[in-house]
Amino acid sequence: MRHATLTFLLLLAGSLAACQHHPTIAYPKLPEAGSFEAEFDCAKLDDAILKTEAVRWVLREDGARLLSPEERVARGTTDVATTIAATFLCFFCISPVTLGDDGHTILDGADRRLLSLLKLKQDRHCDELPTALPEMTDLQMYDAVARLVVQEKEKDAHPDVGALRAERTRLLDKLRP
Amino acid sequence: MWRVLLVLLALGACTGPRAVSPVDSDKPTELRLRAGDSIRVVTRQRERMSLEITEIRATELAGVTVKPGKRETLPAGHDVVVPYADLALVEVRRFSAARTVAAPFVVILLAAGIALQTMPVMVAAP
Asked: Averaged over A115-124, what is the pLDDT?
């Protein structure tokens, strides 16, 4: 039985060491734009996009990344240990994140909030803004990323969800000029 | 072992971080910020800072930076004024009665789980 405890502790230490995501601040909830944001004019939408992008930048700087479905499944073996650790640690000192997912869930939430705000901006026919990619405006980036998100659901046609998510991250990392 | 647990409780159980991402330019009322609060903020311009609030104003908060956290560059002791419109993320740590009360139960449950795993199973004689 002592062997089982030792194995548990080793699993825990291993999974924590493998985790690239180290939160430096508590993260807020980032819901998709709803009825409140639907009332925003173009200036307020750009402001909300800028703020969400700043939070997403913090997530990325802290090491958050999107995982492929395979990576998420592979994490399953250590998820029990990390969930217990996360519950314990979060309770005491750090932000409520699932340690085992490398920030996937919160980063995915930030991406989806950004997309929902950009969609509102597109629906309002607001002026497009430049991004860090010279050939792409923010609304063109929205079109590209929205297509990637749709393709993620078409698992038969595009099995490489990991590559789609990597491309989504690459693009959204360049949203701010 | 118990001393370590007690120190953990004393250090962390009484405070809990709360964070919001303000969606408009008004004061983030959900955090009920007040003078004396220690907060960490991220601005729209991607600036990170830790500060102690000295004054809550109508359109901005004033404070003094404290020891910088990881990836923060502003040194301690600087007077800062942050307009509410610039806040992208605000984190505040406060005393949490619920956590303080519940923490010992979590510790006991974890200890019991480990004890049950490590203790031999006793089978009653027929």
From this structure: 97
pLDDT tens, A37-93? 999 999 999 999 999 999 999 999 999 999 888 787 776 656 556 666 666 665 554
Q: Is A164 within 8 Å of A152 (Cβ atoms)?
A: yes
A4-19 per-position pLDDT tens digit: 666 655 555 555 555 6
Task: Look at A33 and B26; give whichever has higher pLDDT.
Answer: A33
Query: Which of the residues A21, A25, A58 would you substitute to probe the B interface, choosing the one with the greatest number of B C-beta atoms within 10 Å?
Result: A25
Residue B124 in any domain: the answer is no
Q: What is the CATH number of the domain that holds B55?
A: 2.30.30.100
Which residues on A lie below 8 Å from B18 (Cβ)? 26
| Reported ipTM exceeds the 0.95 cut | no
Neighbours of B95 (CB within 10 A): 10
Phi, psi of B50 (to 5 degrees): -110, 130
Which residues of chain A have a CB within 8 Å of the CB of B17? Answer: 25-26, 94-95
**Amino acid occupying residue A16:** L
pTM exceeds 0.80, yes or no: no
Contact A25 B117 (CB under 8 A): no
Domain count, chain B: 1
Indicate whether B70 belongs to any domain.
yes
- Which residue's entry shows tokens 């750090």? A94
B6 touches chain A (CB under 8 A): no
User: Which residue do the tokens 């102690």 mark?
Assistant: B52
Cα B44–B49–B53 angle (5° rounding)?
A: 105
Please state, in angstroms and rounded to a whole number, the distance separating the CA atoms of residues B1 and B7.
10
For residue B11, the surrounding DSSP H or E stretch is: none
Q: Determine the structural domain holding residue B12 and report its residue range.
A: 2-115
Burial B19-28 (b: 16+ CB within 10 A, else e): bbbbbeeebb
